[in-house]
Amino acid sequence: MLVNATEMLKKAKAGHYAVGQFNINNLEWTKAILQTAQELNSPVILGVSEGAGKYMTGYKTVVGMVNGMMEELNITVPVALHLDHGSYDGCLKCVEAGFSSIMFDGSHYPIDENVAKTKELVKIVAEHNMSLEAEVGSIGGEEDGVVGMGECADPEECKRVADLGINFLAAGIGNIHGKYPANWQGLSFETLDAIQQLTGDMPLVLHGGTGIPADMIKKAISLGVSKINVNTECQLAFAEATRKYIEEGKDQQGKGYDPRKLLAPGAEAIKATVKEKMELFGSVNKA
Ligand SMILES: [Zn+2]
Predict the structure, then answer these.
(1) Ion ligand 1 — residues with CB under 5 Å?
(2) Ligand 1 mean position, distance from CA 143 (Å)
(3) How does strand 146-148 pair with strand 141-143?
(4) Closest C-alpha to 282, from 42, 27, 23, 7
(5) How far is the centre of ligand 1, averaged over its atoms, from the C-alpha of 230 (Å)?
(6) Which of 21, 42, 84, 95 would you label with 50, given CA atoms 20 to 30 Å apart?
(7) Annotated catalytic residue within 84, 144, 193, 201
């Protein structure tokens, strides 16, 4: 059964580790992530962007697939199904569809409007026993067409949003989505530290986990990051393994064209990536 992400992230913050959010795109992605979480006895958050939700034909399809798969695979570790970078309307749709967690990304609104909309969602998620992630300071790179510059959030604004009754907070600390450019300045631990000092026990979320060096990840966890989002890295691993299969001509040997064979190396590559991240984040055996 799906759970919200509040308890798992409180435990993570107190235990100085982080839970991975791995974004899903289809059945193979979901299966690979759930199986790895179960094998490693780790809590996990399945992230769904609005674009991925649309691709999978809608949020109800996603909820049906995930619930069915958890039952059929006997998944017993805590799993949250979470809307990633949701619009206000997208959040309402996911509440209705049966998600267990949502992120409202109001970072592109003026802070007062972000606060007002976040406040309304705090009430709604409480009625449904869901968890809510809010965002302050836009996270760089491109996420479903929303482009940001990798700015650092204002710690005072973070405090203001954290006090609204949200469950975890994403704050820009120089991180960006997608691949990091060669001239990237690295994470601002000064900003992260200032945010944590003001927001106390609030679990903090690090977006754009792909390509951040392991030592920076560990330092971020030590400064209060309890949820780390991984998306691009699974996509790159899947694409590389699939390309190799085709380039080696394996789809033309025997029944290598069978989609269950064709997609298997990519799924294995996702599993390996998820395993590596769960080990790095310290969530293994924390279910
Ligand atoms: Zn993000």
Answers:
(1) 207
(2) 7
(3) antiparallel
(4) 42
(5) 9
(6) 42
(7) 84
Quote the ligand 1 centre to 229 CA distance (angstroms). 7
Per-position pLDDT tens, the chain of length 287: 899 999 999 999 999 999 999 999 999 999 999 999 999 999 999 999 999 999 999 999 999 999 999 999 999 999 999 999 999 999 999 999 999 999 999 888 988 999 999 999 999 999 999 999 999 887 776 555 544 456 789 999 999 999 999 999 999 998 988 888 788 888 999 999 999 999 999 999 999 888 899 999 999 999 999 999 999 999 999 999 999 999 999 999 999 999 999 999 999 999 999 999 999 999 999 99
Q: Distance, CA 261 to ligand 1 centroid (Å)? A: 32
286 in a structural domain? no
Distance CA 277, CA 267 (A): 15
Distance (Å) from CA 78 to ligand 1 centroid = 22
Amino acid identity, position 91:
C
Q: Is 84 a catalytic residue?
A: yes
1, part of any domain: no
Distance of alpha carbon 9 from the chain centroid: 12
| Residue 257 phi, psi dihedral angles, 5° rounding | -80, -10
20 located within any domain: yes
Residue 137 lies in a domain: yes
Question: Which residue range forms the structural domain that includes residue 202?
Answer: 6-281
- Can you give the pTM of this predicted structure? 0.95
Name the domain count of the chain.
Answer: 1
Given a contact cutoff of 8 angstroms between Cβ atoms, the answer to whether 146 and 182 are in contact is no
